[in-house]
Every structure is written in structure tokens, then in C-alpha cells.
Write a structure and sequence with these properties.
- It is a single chain.
- A hairpin with a 5-residue loop joins strand 11 and strand 12 (about 400-410).
- The termini are far apart.
- The strands form two sheets. The chain has an eight-stranded mixed sheet. Strands 4-3-2-1-5 form a five-stranded antiparallel sheet, with helices on both faces.
- Residues about 260-290 have low confidence and may be disordered.
- The chain is of the alpha+beta class.
- The protein is about 40% helix and about 20% strand.
Length: about 500
């Protein structure tokens, strides 16, 4: 921009746009345009929106060909937001002249499905690798994301793996341990959790990249992966955001990461945010996908159906080492709002933060259209959770206390037994607002070391006179069950 403004950008991007003229497959064009997004962000930073809307898109419109329209469609899908709006306007101008994108570009709007979604975690529960297969309109891609939990959980690198080689990659990952000093455990994830972890890693990477945005970079070196072999994060960011953003979304907020609002890549992230379900009405209708409607719940139990069965639930606090868990017996017609209160009592939480349940039927909590939370009062346990099923209860979107709820059994109501009740458990739940599971581990270490410089400060924060009053191993089953009884 400093070397000549729009004219300089036109000269820089003209060869790249010319190279796109011979591509006639949606996935190849998507990958090429994703690389252009990487070039734009590295070259002009926070001027990227201007570069797309005032330079690149007008250049394509002047070409006036179906292929130029296809490139526009791809840029709009990947960019979302204002970029997508500008694309729609340019496509309308082309359509008025009888020029429309070729039919094959509609594959961009086909739904993305996922399978073989895995995380590879160290003994502390920290994610080091994410792997999964994503498919769309016959195109399949194996994706591997390397994450550095010691660098804010930021994405370190990304690889695309083709065909049957993905199985070999999974086998190799199972034996990896060099970086952590211990074997990595393979964990199977659902699509919501996998998307959440992947986007959290990408968000952290973008914040770090934004901090380095003023550094002079070799654009083409930055577009490669760490080994310089194939496209890296910068070249694939737009495409990854678009694909991963079409998986089911968790209502769980991403972990905070400093000041995320000012850098050029943070602005680009905002542009991507609307891209997963882009409208593209003028170019692709009626092919544009709609946001999936909420899945209809099974019919709620009526009095004439008789008493609800009893669900025996094992509730584990994710990432806790040693494990922190409770075993609860709850009537199946308990609403999720009532289950929230039961869980608060069972774990000794204070119910002073937001919460949600992530189920196969969507996310439930205090109704919130912006977060996509359905009303928890209107859903019962047996409606959302099948026998042997699982769901996640998240309390405090800042600390992210994730509780994995597993159905151990479903049995008839026992005469003379009052429900809900607690029949087992282990260890005390962490104190409120201590910084999540990693903050809790640090707190335990500090309180166990009287010489630690934060020892006295943390005791005061907890309102304790002596560290002996803090016992992470404590769990009083009788008292927990008494509190549940009192809360009936």
C-alpha cells in the first residue's frame, strides 16, 4: 500500500488471479483462494478488507467471465461478512450482463460432515494434536492440527493428509511421546468439542500472529508449514475456518486470550465468523445452506405414562488429576434446570456463573438466541440422554468447568427411595474462580509449599488461616446426600 496504494495491489494480485482462471474444481479453487487470503493478511494487514472490496473484486468483475464469478463466489464464502456482501453486489452486476458462475462452484455450499475426530492428550489432559476427517460433496480431507499447550494452546502447524494415509497417521500418533515425555492418550471427540478445541487453538494463534504483525516477513515462507513442505497455517486459515465452522457449534465460549480485538488478524477472524453459513443468495440460490434447525426433542413424559425410570449418572470433572467425580441417582423426568441445581449441590459450586448442557439435541441453558441456548426448563433428562449416553455440563464459561455426564444404568423407580441422591464420589471440587483446572492444579501446588511467594496471598484469598484447612481429597458422601435431600 505504501508503494502505490490500489495500483500496487492490482499489480501484486494480477498474476495470482490469472493463475485461477484454469481451475475448474471447487476444492482446488477454494485452496487457491485460501492462499490469497494468507497473502493479503501478510501483505497489507488491517487493510485486507479494502484490498478485497476495492481492488480484487472489481478486477474480477472487469474480467466478466463465469470463471471470474466462480472466484468471487469462493472469496465470498471464505471471507464472509463485508467481503461476502461485496461479492453479492458484484455478482448481481455480472448477472445483469448474463454472466453467472459455473455449476460446479455450488459444491462450496454442500454441508461438511466429520468423522474419526480425535484428540491426543498428555497425562495432564492437555491437547497436543487434533485429527479428523472432513468431507463435503465427495471431497474428503484428513486434517491434523499440532497444538502447543505451553504456548497458550495456540495452533503450531497444520497438515492435510490424503486417502488411506490418514489411518497410518493415527497409528503413528498413538505412539508419540517425545514432546511431552509421556505417551499421548487418544481421546474420541464429538464434532462440537472437536470444533471448539480447533477454533480455540486457531484463535490463540491469530492473537500471537497479530502481536507479530509489524515484523517484516517473507510472505511465501510464512505460507509454508514449519518444515517448508506444503501449505501451512497462513495459507490454509481461511479454508479451515470455513470447513470447521460448519460443524455443530458448542455454546461454550472460547478461552480468553488477552486483548484480542485490535490486531489485523483478529479483524480477519471477524470476517471469517460469518462465512460458515454464508448467504450468497444472488449467486447460489437455491443452493445456499440454511443453519440447521434445532433437533426436535422426543415427546415429554405424561402422567399417564407412569413414573419415570431412575438414571444412575457418573459425573466427572474433565481434566482433573486425580479424578474428581460424583455418582448420582436422578429421576428421568428431572428437567435440565433441576439437574443444574443438583450438580451445583453435588460439587459444592455456588451457582454464581453461567452454565449450559451440550447434548445430541443441542445446547440447553438459560434461553439465549445469541449463544444458541435452548430453554433448559423445557427439557428433561430422559428426553436428551439415552441409556449409555453422554452429555457435557459446563459451569462458568471463564474457568470452563466441564463435567462429563455418563449414564451408567436406567432402572425402575425403587419404592421408599427419595431422589435425587448421591451414592458415591471422590475429592472436593475446586474453589470458584481459581482459573480452571490448570489454575486449580497451580493453587494446590502453591498451598502445599509454605515457601512459595504466593502462599500467604492464596490462603487469604480462600479465607483460610492455615493450609491444613485446605484438603483437595475431602469428600463427605453423607453430607452431600443430606444437602441434596434438603434441596428437594
Amino acid at each position: 500500500m505504501c508503494d502505490g496504494g490500489n495500483a500496487s495491489l492490482r499489480r501484486a494480485f494480477a498474476p495470482g488471479l490469472e493463475d485461477l482462471s484454469g481451475i475448474d474444481a471447487a476444492d482446488e479453487l477454494e485452496a487457491a483462494c485460501s492462499t490469497l487470503f494468507g497473502v493479503m493478511s501478510l501483505s497489507v494487514g488491517d487493510e485486507g478488507l479494502h484490498g478485497w472490496t476495492q481492488v480484487v473484486l472489481p478486477m474480477l468483475r472487469r474480467r466478466g467471465t463465469p470463471q471470474a464469478a466462480a472466484v468471487m463466489c469462493t472469496i465470498g464464502a471464505l471471507g464472509g461478512g463485508e467481503i461476502e456482501q461485496s461479492v453479492e453486489a458484484e455478482l448481481e452486476r455480472l448477472a445483469a450482463d448474463g454472466i453467472r458462475p459455473p455449476a460446479w462452484v455450488h459444491a462450496l455450499q454442500s454441508p461438511v460432515t466429520a468423522g474419526d475426530l480425535r484428540a491426543y492428550e498428555d497425562p495432564d489432559g492437555s491437547t497436543w494434536l487434533l485429527a479428523g476427517r472432513l468431507s463435503r460433496a465427495g471431497t474428503k480431507a484428513g486434517i491434523v492440527l499440532a497444538v502447543d499447550p505451553e504456548d497458550c494452546g495456540a495452533l503450531e502447524d497444520v497438515w492435510m493428509v490424503e486417502g488411506d494415509a490418514f489411518v497410518d497417521v493415527l497409528a503413528r500418533m498413538r505412539s508419540l511421546g517425545q514432546r511431552t515425555g509421556a505417551p499421548l492418550a487418544e481421546v474420541t471427540l464429538d464434532a462440537m468439542e472437536w470444533r471448539w478445541r480447533a477454533e480455540a487453538a486457531m484463535d490463540a494463534r491469530e492473537v500471537h500472529d497479530a502481536d507479530d504483525a509489524d515484523d517484516v516477513v517473507d510472505v511465501f515462507e510464512e505460507l509454508s508449514n514449519a518444515e517448508g513442505d506444503g501449505p501451512g497455517w497462513r495459507a490454509m486459515a481461511a479454508m479451515l475456518r470455513f470447513w470447521i465452522g460448519q460443524l455443530p457449534e458448542s455454546g461454550k465460549p472460547k478461552p480468553p486470550h488477552g486483548d484480542e480485538g485490535d490486531g489485523p488478524l483478529a479483524k480477519l477472524r471477524g470476517m471469517f465468523a460469518a462465512g460458515a453459513y454464508g448467504n450468497m443468495a444472488s449467486a447460489l440460490a437455491p443452493y445456499g445452506p440454511k443453519r440447521p434447525a434445532a433437533i426436535e426433542l422426543p415427546t415429554r413424559r405424561k402422567k399417564s405414562d407412569g413414573p419415570a425410570p431412575v438414571y444412575r449418572l457418573r459425573v466427572d470433572l474433565r481434566g482433573a488429576k486425580p479424578p474428581i467425580w460424583r455418582r448420582l441417582e436422578v429421576a428421568g423426568d428431572t428437567t435440565l434446570a433441576e439437574l443444574h441445581r443438583i450438580l451445583q449441590i453435588a460439587f459444592g459450586w455456588d451457582d454464581c456463573h453461567m452454565h449450559c448442557f451440550e447434548t445430541d439435541f443441542g445446547t440447553f441453558g438459560i434461553p439465549d438466541p445469541d449463544l444458541g441456548h435452548r430453554a433448559e426448563q423445557g427439557a428433561t433428562l430422559e428426553q436428551v440422554l439415552a441409556e449409555n449416553g453422554k452429555m457435557t455440563y459446563t459451569y462458568d464459561f471463564g474457568d470452563s468447568w466441564d463435567h462429563i455426564i455418563t449414564v451408567e444404568s436406567v432402572t425402575p423407580l425403587a419404592e421408599g427411595v427419595a431422589y435425587p441422591r448421591c451414592t458415591g464420589g471422590r475429592r472436593a471440587a475446586p474453589p470458584e474462580d481459581c482459573g480452571g483446572i490448570w489454575g486449580y492444579e497451580a493453587l494446590c501446588e502453591i498451598l502445599a509449599d509454605p515457601e512459595d511467594e504466593q502462599h500467604a496471598e492464596r490462603l487469604e484469598w480462600l479465607g483460610l488461616d492455615d493450609a491444613s484447612e485446605f484438603d483437595p481429597a475431602a469428600f463427605d458422601l453423607a453430607e452431600t446426600d443430606r444437602l441434596l435431600c434438603a434441596g428437594r
